[in-house]
Amino acid sequence: MNSLNYQHLYYFRTVAMEGSVSQAAKKLLLGQPAISLQLKQLEDNLGLQLFHRENRKLTLTEAGQTALEYANQIFRLGDEMQEALKNGSFARRAHLQVGALDSIPKKLIQLLIQAAGEVAECSITVLEGEGDFLFRELLAYKTDLVISNYPPSIGNAKLHSSRMLASAPISIFAAPKFKNLARKFPQSMAGQPFIFPTLHSKLRRDLEHYFRVREIPINIAIETQDTAVQKRLGMEGLGLVPLADFSVKGIRKRGQLVKLGTLAELHEEYWLTSNSGLIHNPVAASLFENFQLKI
């Protein structure tokens, strides 16, 4: 195999991210024939087809997807190198990029960030979003770790490494004005206003099943996936909130939320996922191996 031409790789990455040669040409201020020629030279050099070409539409082959993952990492490191040299920071400071589902308790994100600071002095970026998006970012080496409440799909299992951090019991919390509902819990929940996670959440499905099998009618007044918003609305007395106990310790201590009861047999799992690729962020690698969540 010949030595890699990084200019060809950069053009390939731009085409892959823009979705077409024409859009890449506009971004690079080059002619389409020149870009197409260099893509062909890169494929010839690698001995692999990187794109499927059908009706002027380009889609990445399996080899192309792998090449893009490495290209993203290569050029990200290049950007970091230029920034370090520009700032005179010759002792490279680690940078950790963490993806977190918006349904993950912010307390868990805080604990992971604190643990990262104990591993090494580093800067940290937290990206919140939906699972499919975050796992794609992980595959593209745009994040180092993803915190979620479920593991990656079976189809992507070989591309990721995952481990369960904890399985946390779920309880119902509310503003102090609802404290009398604790007396006949959970039947006292019937007809009360709830602040629930949105429909695509696994916890939402588990909650609905819990109340359905016990024939307890519930009133879903508000839906939001963001646990910070759920807590805020709960503290304002707008509804009852299902949350993991560890995520509300401070709020309970201040008396802003009270615990009405624990939902028997209902738990939420928390998972930490890394990329199975060959390039590892040392801080991410240490966290993946050693970070513990004590419930």
UniProtKB/TrEMBL annotation:
Domain of life: Bacteria
InterPro entries: LysR_HTH_N (IPR000847), LysR_subst-bd (IPR005119), WH-like_DNA-bd_sf (IPR036388), WH_DNA-bd_sf (IPR036390)
Transmembrane segments: none
Keyword presence, Nucleotidyltransferase: no
Domain HTH lysR-type: 4-61
MF annotations from Gene Ontology: DNA-binding transcription factor activity; transcription cis-regulatory region binding
Keywords: DNA-binding, Transcription, Transcription regulation
Alphabetized SUPFAM superfamilies for the sequence: Periplasmic binding protein-like II, Winged helix' DNA-binding domain
Family assignment from sequence similarity: Belongs to the LysR transcriptional regulatory family.
PANTHER family attached to this UniProt entry: HTH-TYPE TRANSCRIPTIONAL ACTIVATOR BAUR (PTHR30126:SF98), HTH-TYPE TRANSCRIPTIONAL REGULATOR (PTHR30126)
Protein name stated in the entry: LysR family transcriptional regulator
Organism: Candidatus Nitrohelix vancouverensis
